């Protein structure tokens, strides 16, 4: 039992003694009420924490979804296809990342096209340079062979001169 007493603003006396008001409270009843209140508060706190966790997961998912989409587009990037399926009109950081990725893709494509054109031009010039080196040497050797062939077989030498003139005509005009 828990004993408590109250003092009154006006004192009462009985047979010359000051009276005090006493109140006995059951300790078990008092602790059961406190325990019930504590259980309710704990349940409310756990429920609030669960709601907070669910809301945080939802907000995090909403915030990371565009980043995940951009990351997947970057991983599956094909230069021939370019960048498709991203929101370039967003005004936030995700929109800036999307636009930067598109710009990077366009730059890569233009640089690759430029490199390919330069490579084709380089191959053409190398071919022309090699051809310019081979033509005089080939012509010199062919004429020496025809000169030797004239002494051996004049008819075959005449046919060789004719074939050489046809080939030179082809090289010059084709």
Which residue ranges are poorly predicted, with pLDDT under 50 across at least 5 consecutive positions? none
Please, what is the average pLDDT?
Answer: 84
Q: Helical region count?
A: 3
Q: Using only CA atoms, what is the Rg?
A: 50 Å
User: In sequence order, what are the helices and strands, one letter per element?
Assistant: EEEEHHH
The neighbouring-strand order within the major sheet is 1-4
How much helix is in the residues? over 70%
| Span between termini | 121 Å
Total number of beta strands:
4
Shape descriptor reads rod-shaped
Strand content: 5-15%
Largest beta-sheet characterization: 2 strands, antiparallel
Class by alpha and beta content: mainly alpha
Summarize it.
By secondary structure, this protein is mainly α.
Which SSEs are present, and which pair or pack?
Blueprint: E1 2-6, E2 13-14, E3 17-18, E4 21-25, H1 27-75, H2 93-152, H3 154-173
Antiparallel strand pairs: 1-4, 2-3
Structure description:
This protein is mainly alpha-helical. The chain has helices at residues 27-75, 93-152, 154-173, and strands at 2-6, 13-14, 17-18, 21-25. The strands form 2 sheets. It has a two-stranded antiparallel ribbon. β2 (13-14) and β3 (17-18) form a beta hairpin. α1 packs parallel to α2 (93-152) and α2 (93-152) runs antiparallel to α3. The longest helix is centred in the C-terminal third of the chain and has 60 residues, at 93-152. The radius of gyration is 50 Å and the shape is rod-shaped. The model has no long low-confidence stretch (mean pLDDT 84).
